[in-house]
Task: structure prediction
Amino acid sequence: MLEPVMFTGGVYKHDLVIELVEDLGGYVLQRNVTQSEVILLLLVPTEDQAALQALTGELRGELVRAPLAGTEVAVVTPTLAIHHLPHTACDIAEYLRRHGAKSNMIGLARGVGRDIAQITEYEAGLINEHDAVVFIFGNFAECIRKKESLYRNISVPVVVTGGPEMPASDLPYAFEYVPAVGRISHRARKATEIGTLDRIIAAVARALDRTRAEIAKDPLTTSPPRVMDAVREQVPEVEYSYSPLPIALNLNGVRVKLPFEEYKDAVEAVTFDEGVRLKEIAAIKPSRMKDYILVRILPASETGFVF
Result:
């Protein structure tokens, strides 16, 4: 099983970390280089983490588990209009990115109002393409209870945030509730506010770990990072995508940011070393996000093999 980790250290000799991860059969998901520091998001086989930890110690770096790495998380608010104070949404989305997730902010078209709030089928479908979702609500407990209809039919884990303290039994359709957020008219700067963001990250991490455990019961035919590498190698046009992340990883597949109709056949024809084509082991369909290509890898129970 591949474990998501984050390496932080100096630029000097960080290539040794990349080489070791590739030799161990792992994957480099992302590399961010600043003037004197590098941050690597990695997937490493669980049984080989000791070797990576030893090299990290030699390089005076830091290696920590990053459960959000290689995932997409939606951050949903009733609306992104300024009167709904989107400062909190921006803080949460940015904090998710810092911890390795690809976060997407979504403002609902009809999410305003305690009694009239609605979510469209398109919005629900878009949210369900993510690995988890954070719903951001306000300061009134009754309003938060009423708006559970917005996420009742969401199939991915839902983390709800709001202002008041509320028992978990009040929100039966939420994976977890994080209080002390609510409507805030400024960016998070205080230690208590940063601590609340940490609690949101921890809740999302627990939700993603639960999803990983469920996937492990019926493993995917192949791993999403391997699909990502194969698509990047055999569909070179993806490197010319204007998106900062041309291929977004999910726990059960990838999102290829190319027009569906134009590149569907090329993605379906991607072939692995075992002679298997991608269309034989995955469902390839249009994404709700900008007509991108959504690849969902089938489990071993459907294909009959794992490679």
User: Anything to note?
Assistant: Residues 224-303 form one domain. The two ends are 13 Å apart (CA to CA). Residues 26 and 44 are 5 Å apart (CA to CA). The longest helix spans residues 191-217.
